[in-house]
Structure formats: structure tokens, C-alpha cells
Design a protein that fits this description.
disordered N terminus, 15 helices, mainly alpha, about 425 residues
């Protein structure tokens, strides 16, 4: 039998090119998730607030880009060295070494900034949907500015920036905690402080159904998010310069997809069991919960374990939604069950398939990040409430945010007075 041919290693320049390409193409997929959030939220809010939710999603992505350039990236990555936070100052690219033939950096600097920036915008998008239909536009955008400039980068520095959580062995491959739970905690504090939509919780204890404007849009948004999530998790391999990296990314894609499928089926089955009907919105959020659940560790499970991890996430969504209603916490799109509950579960699930992670360290990271984000978010929300006011007036809420905030209707041919 002939000997197997020797595998030639790629040159450092070729690895540099492939690593840069991975950051760019996977970052572009994550950027496309912004469209997914916009469509999902537009479909799940009522017709009279669709224009405003679209504007919020466009604005928050733009804010995230600017703040991450001016402050966020360096706070998160520059000189953390096992500590708590990096340095102040805006980010600047330096690829002079590569231009002179030294490819030891591994990738183009701007490709890394771009990939990291689109993750920040994802965290901010989570807050948008939860607080829809009753929060003023400008106070919300001020909160997004603080979230993307300070809150997200500081806690991100603890692990991804090489800070104290990284030193303790905390594991969060693509951000079940660092991205999704952060958005979930910020959304939860905001939902409690802003309060529920008028008429959502009635005096007799019943919960009023407030159907969204378009289930087709919400479904489209979910598929876009599912597609973009492949970049979210796959790109977090942070390299494509070897066969081992290519194999790892392929496994991550497969695990990400099967986890989401598990979330869908679990949510469908449980909603059928509890309500004797299948709830499409639960199935959509089950898909997203499966994605969030696998995000902390998509690189180590088998397909079977990834399916199970995603299925638990989908189950948590169906269980958490009525719990929030009992607590009278109004989450318009289900962001808190999807991103917070499933994010916590996904982070705790990492040691099931990753022998280098421990449940104690994972729990420590969850508590530390949750405590920090909750405390700072609460202060920021309360300051904004005192200075600018958070809640729209009853009259504006009745007419809809679109009339008051933009003067534009998403569906002008419809009579929106009763919606």
C-alpha cells in the first residue's frame, strides 16, 4: 500500500489571507443578522409601531459601530492582561508589518475590528425588541450608547479580552453570556423599569393577547438570524488558516444548525402539549433559543449533544414566557426567554462536552456578568427616567409610536386607530 502523501503546510501569508477572509465573511453574516432582528421585531410588534422599531434597529447598529471605534474596542482588548478593563482611546489599524512581509499578526487588523463590532450590535438589538411599543426613541438610543461604549466592552474584557474570567478558565466560545445574556439582562431591567404596555395585564389577572403585525415577517427574520448565526459561531473559531480550523468550522456549522432544529421541535411539542395547539411564535423563539444555547460551546459537542442542548433551550422559552407574564414583565418579542434564559443554560452546558470547563467557573461568570450588567443598566435606566423620561404618554401609546416619533406609518393604507 502506498504511503499517504505528506500534507504541506500553507505559507504564513496564505494563512493570513484565509484568516482575514474568515473574519470578513463571517462578520458579514453577523451583520446580516441586523436585518433578521429588524424583520423579527417588525413582525412581532403591532402595526402602529413598525416604523419606529425599524428605525431603532438601523440606529442602534450605527451607534454600535461608532462607539466601538471611539471607545469600546480598546476598553475590551487593549492591555487588559488578566485585569478588568483595557485602555481609553479610539481604535486604529496597523498592518504595516504585513505590508512589509511579516504575517505573524495572523490577520488584517481591520478584519478583527469589523468582526468584533457586529457582535456589539447584536447585544443592543436584543434590548430593542423587549422594550418595543412603549419606550421613547431618544432615551433608548442613549442607553444603547452606554451599553455599546461601556457595559458590553467592560464585561467582554473579562474573558475575550484576556481578563480575570479568562484567567479562571471561564468558557464562552461565541457569546451565550458575553453577548446574549448581556442583552437579556439589560432588557430585563429595562422592561421592569419602563413597565408593561397599556392593557397587557388586566385587573382580573388575565393576560391580553397583542398579536404582532406580520407572522410572515417574523418567520423571515428568524430564518435570516439562523443563517447569520453560522457566521456568529463559525467565525468565532477566529482562524481558517489550516485544515484543523476548516474542520472545526464545519463541525460548528453542523452543531449550530442541529441545535436550532432541536429548539424548534421542543418548543412545538411542548406548546402542543400545554395548549393543544402549536404556537408559531414559540417555534420561532425555540429556534433562536437553540441557537443561543449552543453558542457558548458549539465546538465540542457531538451532533446528538448539540441537539439536546438546543432542545432544552427551546423548552426554556415555552416555560419562561408564562413566568414573565405572571410577574407582569412585558417582553414584546420574547427576547428575555431566548437570550437570557437560554444564554444562562448554554453557558452552564459547556462542561457537559468540554472537559476543560467547570460548572463552578461557568456559574461564576454568569453571576459576575449578570450582576455587573444588571447594576449598571439599572442605574442608567433610572437616570434616563429622571432626566429624559422613558415612557411615552398614554395618548401616544394609543396612537402608536410611529405617529409620535417618526410621523410615518409602515402600512399607511390601513386604518390603524384600533391597533
Amino acid at each position: 500500500m502506498a504511503a499517504a502523501p505528506a500534507q504541506a503546510a500553507v505559507t504564513s501569508e496564505t494563512a493570513y489571507i484565509f484568516n482575514t477572509f474568515s473574519f470578513l465573511i463571517h462578520g458579514a453574516l453577523v451583520l446580516w443578522m441586523a436585518a433578521g432582528f429588524a424583520m423579527l421585531e417588525s413582525g412581532l410588534v403591532r402595526t402602529k409601531s413598525v416604523t419606529t422599531i425599524l428605525l431603532k434597529n438601523l440606529a442602534l447598529f450605527s451607534i454600535a459601530g461608532v462607539t466601538y471605534f471611539l471607545v469600546g474596542y480598546n476598553l475590551m482588548y487593549d492591555g487588559v492582561d488578566g485585569g478588568v478593563v483595557g485602555s481609553l482611546g479610539w481604535w486604529g489599524a496597523d498592518d504595516s508589518a504585513a505590508l512589509n512581509g511579516d504575517f505573524s499578526a495572523g490577520y488584517a487588523a481591520a478584519s478583527d475590528w469589523f468582526f468584533q463590532m457586529v457582535f456589539v450590535a447584536t447585544a443592543a438589538s436584543i434590548v430593542s425588541g423587549a422594550l418595543a411599543e412603549r419606550i421613547k426613541l431618544w432615551p433608548f438610543l442613549v442607553f444603547v450608547t452606554v451599553l455599546t461604549a461601556v457595559i458590553y466592552p467592560v464585561q467582554g474584557a473579562w474573558h475575550w479580552g484576556g481578563g480575570w474570567l479568562a484567567e479562571r478558565g471561564f468558557a464562552d466560545f461565541a457569546g451565550s453570556t458575553i453577548v446574549h445574556s448581556v442583552g437579556g439582562w439589560a432588557a430585563l431591567t429595562g422592561a421592569i423599569i419602563v413597565g408593561a404596555r397599556a392593557g397587557k395585564y388586566r385587573e382580573d389577572g388575565r393576560v391580553a393577547a397583542m398579536p404582532g403585525s406580520s407572522l410572515p415577517l417574523a418567520t423571515l427574520g428568524t430564518f435570516i438570524l439562523w443563517f447569520g448565526w453560522l457566521g456568529f459561531n463559525g467565525g468565532s473559531q477566529l482562524a481558517l488558516g489550516s485544515a484543523a480550523d476548516a474542520i472545526a468550522i464545519a463541525n460548528i456549522y453542523a452543531n449550530t444548525t442541529i441545535a436550532s432544529a432541536g429548539g424548534v421541535l421542543a418548543a412545538m411539542g411542548l406548546s402542543q402539549l400545554l395548549n393543544r395547539k402549536v404556537d408559531l411564535t414559540m417555534a420561532l423563539n425555540g429556534a433562536l433559543a437553540g441557537l443561543v444555547s449552543i453558542t457558548a460551546g458549539p465546538d465540542t459537542p457531538s451532533l446528538g449533544m448539540a441537539l439536546l442542548i438546543g432542545a432544552v433551550g427551546g423548552t426554556l422559552v415555552v416555560a419562561t414566557v408564562p413566568l414573565l407574564d405572571r410577574l407582569k414583565i412585558d417582553d414584546v418579542v420574547g427576547a428575555i426567554p431566548v437570550h437570557l434564559a437560554a444564554g444562562i443554560w448554554g453557558t452552564l452546558a459547556v462542561p457537559l462536552t468540554n472537559g476543560e470547563a467547570s460548572f463552578a467557573t461557568q456559574a461564576l461568570g454568569i453571576v459576575a456578568v449578570g450582576g455587573f450588567v444588571t447594576a449598571v443598566s439599572t442605574v442608567v435606566w433610572l437616570v434616563l427616567k429622571a432626566v429624559m423620561g422613558l415612557r411615552i404618554s398614554q395618548q401616544v401609546e394609543s396612537l402608536g409610536l410611529d405617529q409620535a416619533e417618526t410621523g410615518m406609518r409602515a402600512y399607511p393604507e390601513f386604518n390603524l386607530s384600533s391597533r
